[in-house]
Design a protein that fits this description.
The chain is of the alpha+beta class. The chain has 9 helices and 11 strands. The protein folds into 2 domains: 5-142, Jelly Rolls (Sandwich); 149-224, Arc Repressor Mutant, subunit A, CATH 1.10.10. Strands 1-8-3-6 form a 4-stranded antiparallel sheet. Strands 2-7-4-5 form a 4-stranded antiparallel sheet. A 3-stranded antiparallel sheet has the order 9-11-10. The longest helix has 25 residues, at 120-144.
């Protein structure tokens, strides 16, 4: 299926490219839809295409030594995935799984490799994404070493927050309890109990997919181990 050039142009990776190059990419692109909990890329296999997420949410997932899923990072719309295996043509280091119904574009690795050589801008964006994802994965593995489930959950909330000019920290499209459980290697029930405790204390407030952190200092203290 041919992908419209305007669809590819919405991705930061391609927005600086000439129309002729975008048009060439569109002829090689394939649109894929996948249901929830579908493996999009398999660990240990070489990714033969670069993926670009249109809508939905994907998650990078690895397995712990005891066989449990450990979420490493989320992939949101307008982001790309599979870039490491595309660049070095070695097996993917983790699974990519859909955590909701998702639509994404796949472009063959050889086309992306040619583009990287021809466009310093594209190479710089991919390198920046690789660095960011590596730092995120390292931070996530450090988080998993924290001693208590509640501490890990608060550390994950802290990791998902960012600086805001408002008093409250807002996390749009917050992960579900199950998705958070995978990220911090606990049960969904543990996440639910922790959220109930935080909501009762007025630390967080949830409105559908919107999560508001009302007291970031408390979350930070728990994550640092200074709040009992």
């Amino acid at each position: 299926m041919s992908i419209a050039t305007v669809t590819l142009k919405q991705f930061k990776l391609f927005e600086q490219l000439p129309h002729a190059v975008i048009d060439q990419l569109s002829r090689h692109a394939t649109l894929i839809e996948t249901p929830r909990r579908q493996i999009v890329m398999k660990k240990g296999e070489i990714a033969h295409s670069l993926g670009l997420l249109l809508d939905g949410r994907l998650q990078g997932v690895d397995l712990t030594l005891d066989g449990h899923e450990a979420g490493l990072y989320f992939i949101e719309p307008n982001d790309f995935f599979g870039e490491l295996s595309v660049i070095d043509q070695k097996p993917a280091p983790e699974f990519i799984v859909s955590v909701s119904h998702a639509r994404f574009i796949m472009i063959p690795a050889k086309i992306i490799q040619q583009l990287i050589k021809a466009s310093p801008e594209v190479a710089a964006i991919i390198n920046s994404r690789l660095a960011l994802r590596l730092r995120s994965s390292i931070a996530q593995r450090s988080l998993l070493a924290m001693p208590t489930p509640f501490q890990r959950i608060c550390a994950q909330l802290l990791k998902m927050s960012w600086e805001s000019k408002e008093k409250d920290i807002t996390i749009p499209h917050a992960p579900t309890h199950q998705e958070l459980a995978i990220m911090v290697n606990v049960t969904r029930e543990t996440v639910t109990r922790s959220f109930q405790k935080l909501q009762k204390k007025g630390i967080i407030k949830r409105n559908g997919s919107l999560l508001v952190i009302k007291n970031l200092s408390y979350i930070s203290d728990v994550a640092a181990g200074s709040e009992k």
